[in-house]
């Protein structure tokens, strides 16, 4: 099976071309591909399929009709995700690099709807729906309880700005933060943020770490950066504006208007090759 490996600010993906929709992407195949010891290693899998080739997608032309290509995204544990901000940017880079699209500006279909992308040599920008702030709740981590804001970015997020007494580098994110299962029945991506101070930082510049559902801590999360930006702007009394989000894998910028949210940052293809499906399973003892 052919594959390409890509990453967006350290959030890495295995990209599988399946233009005619012939591949059955089982959870076992996804976990095998994403295994960092027995597979290729990644935070998730991006299946590249034409919307017209998938019966389920073709049956909903109003939702996906303007997008020729659909991003079928799976978390590293094999679960299905509605949206992935870095994933859609890497997906767009792949389509341009493989000449599967004729221009550098186009639409990509996702489970949360169409995403408009712009691809340049330096970066890829993805414009999504406006993040919806849903109210406050808490996350428990390592015996501490943090207050955060639930945010809908097409997928669920909980953004927790840290109190001054806690440093971002001190957090232990080897286990998932404990959240209210009634509010997040399908799990949630939990972002922790702290302000960046000093020159040239501005008032809407934050650092972020994230625990992604179905993956664990990742070096970046695009939709999480959008959620963090929305909460940062809201806390400073702004419904729209430009925010900078530094993640362990690099820097993302988020421009929020009354209607939409544009995420911009690096997206790079790093390798391509062939993977042997029968060799992906980890040995049992």
Automatic annotation (TrEMBL):
Coiled coil (UniProt feature): none
Keyword field: Amino-acid biosynthesis, Cytoplasm, Isomerase, Lysine biosynthesis
Sites marked Could be important to modulate the pK values of the two catalytic cysteine residues: 157, 212
First-level EC class: isomerase
One GO process term, biological-process aspect: lysine biosynthetic process via diaminopimelate
GO molecular function, a single term: diaminopimelate epimerase activity
Pfam families: DAP_epimerase
Quaternary context: Homodimer.
Compartment(s): Cytoplasm
Family annotation (Gene3D superfamilies): Diaminopimelate Epimerase, Chain A, domain 1
Gene Ontology cellular component terms for the protein in this record: cytosol
HAMAP family the UniProt entry points to: DAP_epimerase (MF_00197)
Active site: 84, 84 (proton donor), 221 (proton acceptor)
Protein source organism: Natronosporangium hydrolyticum
Pathway, per record: Amino-acid biosynthesis; L-lysine biosynthesis via DAP pathway; DL-2,6-diaminopimelate from LL-2,6-diaminopimelate: step 1/1
Lineage: Bacteria, Bacillati, Actinomycetota, Actinomycetes, Micromonosporales
Binding site for substrate: 11, 75, 85-86, 155, 189, 212-213, 222-223
InterPro entries cross-referenced by the UniProt entry: DAP_epimerase_AS (IPR018510), DAP_epimerase_DapF (IPR001653)
Catalytic activity, as annotated: (2S,6S)-2,6-diaminopimelate = meso-2,6-diaminopimelate
Signal peptide extent: none
Enzyme Commission numbers on file: 5.1.1.7
Family: Belongs to the diaminopimelate epimerase family.
Described function: Catalyzes the stereoinversion of LL-2,6-diaminopimelate (L,L-DAP) to meso-diaminopimelate (meso-DAP), a precursor of L-lysine and an essential component of the bacterial peptidoglycan.
Record-given protein name: Diaminopimelate epimerase
């Amino acid at each position: 099976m052919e594959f390409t490996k890509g990453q967006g600010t350290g959030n890495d993906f295995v990209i599988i071309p399946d233009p005619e929709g012939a591949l059955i992407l089982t959870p076992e195949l996804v976990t095998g591909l994403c295994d960092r010891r027995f597979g290729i290693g990644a935070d998730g899998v991006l299946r590249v399929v034409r919307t017209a080739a998938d019966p389920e997608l073709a049956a909903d032309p109003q939702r996906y009709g303007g997008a020729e290509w659909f991003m079928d995204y799976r978390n590293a544990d094999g679960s299905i995700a509605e949206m992935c901000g870095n994933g859609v940017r890497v997906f767009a880079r792949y389509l341009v690099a493989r000449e599967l699209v004729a221009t550098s500006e186009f639409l990509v279909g996702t489970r949360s709807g169409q995403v408009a992308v712009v691809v340049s040599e330096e970066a890829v920008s993805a414009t999504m729906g406006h993040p919806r702030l849903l109210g406050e709740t808490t996350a428990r981590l390592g015996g501490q309880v943090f207050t955060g804001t639930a945010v809908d970015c097409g997928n669920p997020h909980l953004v927790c700005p840290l109190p001054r007494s806690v440093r971002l580098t001190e957090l232990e994110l080897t286990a998932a933060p404990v959240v209210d299962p009634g509010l997040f029945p399908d799990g949630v991506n939990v972002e922790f943020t702290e302000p960046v101070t000093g020159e040239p930082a501005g008032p809407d510049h934050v650092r972020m770490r994230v625990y992604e559902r179905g993956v664990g801590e990742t070096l970046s999360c695009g939709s999480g950066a959008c959620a963090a930006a929305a909460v940062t702007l809201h806390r400073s009394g702004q419904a729209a504006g430009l925010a900078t989000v530094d993640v362990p894998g690099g820097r993302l910028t988020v421009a929020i208007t009354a209607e939409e949210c544009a995420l911009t940052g690096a997206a790079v293809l790093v390798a391509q090759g062939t993977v042997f499906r029968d060799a992906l399973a980890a040995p049992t003892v």
